[in-house]
Design brief:
By secondary structure, this protein is α/β, with parallel strands linked by helices. The chain has a single domain (about 30-380), classed as Alkaline Phosphatase, subunit A, CATH 3.40.720.10. Helices cover about 30% and strands about 20% of the residues. The strands form three sheets. It has a ten-stranded mixed β-sheet with strand order 7-6-5-4-8-1-9-10-2-11, sandwiched between helices. A four-stranded antiparallel β-sheet has the order 12-13-14-15, with helices on one face. Strand 14 (about 395-400) and strand 15 (about 405-410) form a beta hairpin. Helix 5 (about 190-205) runs parallel beside helix 6. The longest helix is centred in the middle third of the chain and has 28 residues, at about 245-270.
């Protein structure tokens, strides 16, 4: 390259940096907040038809923002779903097949969680000048390399595993206790309130912006607990009690606590004058579970762990006053992974070109410039816990161990009651082929679930892995 080329290149770099700095100073880079509920049933919000739950703060996001009627996660359980949200990629594209609890590597050197070369949303936004904070449940691996502070977050307060008692007994040890950064902490407050408290503090301290706030609440995942401390000796069964009505009362209390936490966050944004420069997403990581009898997925078939709608269609909304018209709704499929591209591109970044993304920018939908299906004629595929599914347009094929369970027209049959497989054998064959082709392009698993007993044997033989 000649001197002129070097000068031009340097000028371009300087101009680009100046533009980025100008954007930051002018406040055009919006703050981005992602609030993730845990195991929230599709029908367990007031806005979704629940009559025994009061959720005014969450309902406000849906009523005054954009509600997605057919929003899907990539996996009907916690860990892989979160891995996809955090990377913008289907979890099987990087060999993340199950929850990272009681697992062993399939090859020496594999991380027991998010692979090293996956890029998180926090890392992408940090490159755009964002302060990044996470307060809640991680569930993407216990190893030090997978700690939130090593995956793009400046601040972390929460726990790394799948669940946690809502009143901390202070009896857990690293890495399975509550942490602030890398350090042990004993939380004295009700956990949902604590995560909201920490989130509000982060907003206050970074109100000059821009910031990325990720709040993966553990509510309303079990153990079912009221928000009044039962004391250290009270039994807290993981799957609730034998009294289904009492289980429901506890769940309602937990969901209302979740709503209270959302209210704390939204009030802090308003107090800091940030509402109109903050894009907020709310969603659940999967559908409500069947255990305890407390959770409700409305008219949807199935529960957490299933690729029927009740397992992987989730309540989801986006809220941004002045940018998103109040009361909007979108009836075509969107993916939880779409949050990734939306956040990155709205912040002024670009998706890396060295990998396949399952993420599209939702802004044309949010601003009303796009009415047609965002994912068009794509084959949307799932493979989870022995079940498979393909969604294309209005149609969805469900399989169990690759054997056809049913073909459904989802807009006409939300409850997946009317199996049309015999009436449309060619469509079934096309969907089966689409899933087979998709599966061929997936890499080997990085780890596999073996259960507590085999994991204990493996850990004893190989030593502590974190």
């Amino acid at each position: 390259m000649g001197k002129l080329g070097v000068v031009v290149l340097l000028a371009g770099i300087v101009a680009g940096a100046a533009l980025a700095e100008t954007k930051k100073e002018s406040g055009t880079q919006p703050n981005i907040v992602v609030v993730l509920a845990d195991d929230l049933g599709y029908g367990d919000l007031g806005i979704q038809g629940a009559t025994d739950v009061q959720t005014p703060n969450i309902d406000k996001l849906f009523r005054n923002g954009m509600q997605f009627k057919e929003a899907y996660v990539s996996y009907p359980a916690c860990g892989p779903s979160r891995a996809s949200i955090m990377t913008g990629r289907h979890h099987l594209r990087f060999g993340f097949p199950s929850n990272p609890d009681h697992i062993i590597p399939t090859q020496p050197g594999n991380l027991l969680g998010l692979p090293k070369d996956e890029i998180t949303l926090a890392q992408m936004l940090r490159k755009q000048g964002y302060a990044t904070g996470m307060f809640g449940k991680w569930h993407l691996g216990f190893q030090q390399e997978n700690h939130p502070l090593n995956r793009g977050f400046d601040e972390f307060y929460g726990f790394l595993g799948s669940l946690y008692r809502y009143f901390d007994l202070g009896n857990m040890k690293l890495p399975k206790c509550m942490e602030r950064g890398f350090d042990y902490v004993h939380e004295k407050e009700y956990l949902t309130d604590a995560f909201a408290r920490e989130s509000a503090s982060f907003i206050e301290r970074h109100k000059a912006g821009p910031f990325f706030l990720y709040v993966p609440f553990s509510a309303a995942h079990t153990p079912l607990m009221h928000d009044k401390d039962p004391g250290p000796n009270a039994p807290v069964p993981l799957d609730g009690t034998d009294d289904v009505a009492e289980n429901r009362r506890m769940l309602v209390n937990m969901i209302e606590g979740l709503d209270r936490g959302v209210g704390t966050i939204m009030r802090k944004l308003e107090e800091c004058g940030l509402e109109e420069n903050t894009l907020v997403f709310f969603l659940s990581d999967n559908g409500g579970p069947e255990a305890t009898g407390a959770y409700g997925n409305g008219a949807l078939r199935g529960f957490k762990g299933s690729v029927f709608e009740g397992g992987m269609r989730v309540p989801m909304a986006a809220y941004w006053p002045g940018k998103i018209k109040p009361g909007g709704s979108y009836g075509h499929p969107v993916l939880a992974t779409d949050i990734f591209a939306t956040a990155v591109e709205t912040a002024g970044g670009m998706l890396p070109g060295d990998r396949t993304y399952d993420s599209k920018n939702l802004m044309p939908v949010l601003t009303g410039t796009m009415q047609e299906p965002l994912h068009g004629n794509e084959d949307l595929c799932w493979d989870a816990l022995g079940m498979q599914a393909v969604r294309k347009g209005d149609w969805k094929l469900v399989m169990r161990n690759h054997k056809v369970v049913g073909l459904y027209n989802i807009p006409a049959d939300t409850g997946e009651k009317n199996n049309l497989a015999d009436a449309y054998p060619e469509r079934v064959a096309q969907f089966e082929q689409a899933h087979a082709e998709w599966s061929k392009g997936l890499p080997p698993w990085q780890f596999k679930w073996v259960g507590p007993e085999k994991f204990a044997e493996w850990e004893k033989e190989h030593g502590k892995q974190w």
